[in-house]
């Protein structure tokens, strides 16, 4: 097969720093200057599939992201929506982790252009803006707790019967124990202040409970409001990712003592 015209089309449609290297029958490595955040190049292969051509990352992109993010985090919540919408926008298919785009009407350059755009968008989830990450933090915490607590013992967005409007919500309540365990996710100072007010109100109502606060990043919280929260919450963890084992052990012990 004469790959010269395909290489020329790749160069004219995408960029000049592209080369093709045969790596088997009907299979070529597409070398580009595009890289992941850690400096590794995108892995792109042009290969024959039945009577047509496809571009594939051979499952390397999502595997690469898993070095920084849990696979559960990539496959759920806002991150999954970002991945799915990025792939859909450029007609890229996700085949159980392998990202693939067909070459339609022999338009090799257009296919590579769209494929690189899609891979770039997908890798963006490793450095989302802080506001978007905050929205995924609560989803990550929910996924984590669901993996550690039996479904019939975990209530999400619980509120007391004296609070019909949900003014003093509890993010997660573990029930069927002598004293229920209230768990608050703390992605921001505003959220922490709401949790502080809620815990103080529960004390006023003479509720019997244990409480835990799990921060996204405790170091980002101002000192004075942080002090007020730590005065009323029973136990706290400075972050989720770095304390998963400790949190899991704490929850396991609480469940055994129920």
Give a summary of the structure in a few sentences.
With about 260 residues, the protein is an alpha+beta fold. The chain is built from 9 helices and 11 strands.
Protein described:
The chain is built from 9 helices and 11 strands. It has helices spanning 4-13, 60-65, 71-74, 77-89, 108-123, 130-148, 189-204, 223-232, 244-256; strands at 19-22, 27-31, 44-49, 52-56, 93-95, 98-102, 154-158, 170-174, 181-186, 210-215, 235-237. Strands 1-2-3-4-6-5 form a 6-stranded antiparallel beta sheet. Strands 7-8-9-10-11 form a 5-stranded mixed beta sheet, sandwiched between helices. A hairpin with a 6-residue loop joins strand 8 (170-174) and strand 9. Helix 4 packs antiparallel against helix 5 (108-123) and helix 7 (189-204) packs parallel to helix 8 (223-232). The longest helix has 19 residues, at 130-148. The chain is elongated. The termini are far apart. The relative contact order is 0.09.
- Quickly count the helices: 9
In the predicted model, the low-confidence regions spanning at least 5 consecutive residues are: none
| Cα-atom radius of gyration | 25 Å
Outline: elongated
Strand content: 15-25%
Mean of pLDDT: 89
Q: What attributes does this structure have?
A:
258 residues; alpha+beta; six-stranded antiparallel beta sheet; five-stranded mixed beta sheet; elongated
